[in-house]
Amino acid sequence: xxxxxxxxxxxxxxxxxxxxxxxxxxxxxxxxxxxxxxxxxxxxxxxxxxxxxxxxxxxxxxxxxxxxxxxxxxxxxxxxxxxxxxxxxxxxxxxxxxxxxxxxxxxxxxxxxxxxxxxxxxxxxxxxxxxxxxxxxxxxxxxxxxxxxxxxxxxxxxxxxxxxxxxxxxxxxx
Length: 174
Hints:
By secondary structure, the protein is an alpha+beta fold. It is built from four helices and six strands; from the N terminus they run H-H-H-E-E-E-E-E-H-E. It has helices at 9-33, 42-58, 67-72, 145-149; strands at 86-89, 107-112, 119-122, 128-131, 134-136, 160-161. It has a six-stranded mixed sheet. Strand 3 and strand 4 form a beta hairpin. The longest helix is centred in the N-terminal third of the chain and has 25 residues, at 9-33. Residues 164-174 have low confidence and may be disordered.
């Protein structure tokens, strides 16, 4: 039965793990921003998605494997950034404007897409994009509530790949 706690024990424990991690991530992000964040904004949905991703990649289950290892046969070896961290995604495709044209933009890290491993970022105009290559910005770039509140959509709203053609000059009106 659905109310049988023994039958739902594994699922209940997974939900508890994710809730605990989500609370920890939220407190950390609020401390880095220096102010409370809203649970009704798209950022919170990305934070929840990130918590689930971390549990799948790093929580070791019975049998000494993570969920990711059980699915893909190998552990996660990529970089992990804090949600809200300032990062620089690389535009893919040919450099528009010649080889000297800037290929790295500013963005805010939101998480990693589980199926493809692409990093998910919010651009300064609020657009959510996926990138295959990112790098951290210099130390000391603060996480701000203003940068997080412009995020236009949550995980269900979709994202696009960052290319030379899809992300132009960052305009607030886009």
